[in-house]
């Protein structure tokens, strides 16, 4: 296979969206030498903020001089951006080489895309001899393919209602699924503040002979560079206007403190510079300034609420939205409606997207099939727009705007 053929095959596997067989995958990884255990790692779960937290940690450790492998999802620019070393995408040559070498095994075992990606990440990180690997959970925690890793520290950013068909219908059930990443003796960091979720975490931590560190609450201000706050004696400057990133950055700080306690060298200078320089595509990303266009992959209710809080500086922004059909569409749109009467819902090419009929009983939204025509219209208007919803949609929009 050549690169385009290999990438197309992976994308076809993604569309099947099968459920991972964790025990079968464990046997496969053992056959391959358990490469996921060869590199010291960090494991990150949560409803929202996982990718951003991974990126803050990567930036800090890289600033210290380490080689850092990361596995995140979904892809924003192309499949290979899921697996990176020092923020550089997995190289095409390695991807094609692995696809040709292992494809028959993947087919024989009916492996899912997340199983393949987890294997690829571990194999690539070991081959390239990274110092640390940071794995983002794909879905849930306990049954996720990444839950084979044995981390130095685990992070559960927060708990919200998402993927209920797989994780449960209550916050406690969802928290329990994500608490499945808590390992014996491995410290845990969380930004969660809901009592019922914390009780779940703490019970699991006691059973695993470890403890949970919760981030401290601290005020935050906005300046011309982004958001600024004091935390644990540090003056933190982030290069984002997304207020929700404060919690993700604080999770990274607490994780670094734990790493330091077990002998990982990270200077204060690397910590502060890494946080300041980190940038994550599609999360409150100001992609145009004239007219102002903000991209934000707020793909569930929790994410939309966080986005709304960060839009306090905009008076009645307009919205371009596309949401997947398994989300709480009505509640998400209602939150946006509290900020603006101008909400345009659009379609895009994805088998999971909610179509026009899903919005039929919401009188204050308009619907358009061609998001590209809507973006063309936005670009000639003199008013701020926020484009939000599915991260898959944000990825498509970003590519179109960059063209």
What does this structure look like?
α3 packs across α9, α7 (171-178) packs parallel to α8 and α11 (301-310) runs parallel beside α12. The longest helix has 17 residues, at 92-108. The radius of gyration is 21 Å and the shape is globular. The chain is built from 14 helices and 17 strands. With 403 residues, it is of the alpha/beta class. It is 40% helix and 18% strand. β9 and β10 form a beta hairpin. It has helices at 3-16, 22-31, 50-63, 92-108, 113-127, 164-167, 171-178, 195-207, 245-261, 268-277, 301-310, 329-337, 371-378, 391-402; strands at 41-45, 68-71, 83-85, 88-89, 132-136, 153-156, 188-190, 212-214, 220-223, 226-231, 234-238, 285-289, 292-296, 318-322, 343-346, 365-368, 385-389. An 8-stranded mixed β-sheet has the order 4-3-2-5-1-6-7-8, sandwiched between helices. Strands 12-13-17-14-15-16 form a 6-stranded mixed β-sheet, with helices on both faces. The protein folds into 2 domains: 3-218 and 242-259, UDP-N-acetylmuramoyl-L-alanine:D-glutamate ligase (3-Layer(aba) Sandwich), CATH 3.40.1190.10; 285-402, Protein-Tyrosine Phosphatase, Chain A, CATH 3.90.190.
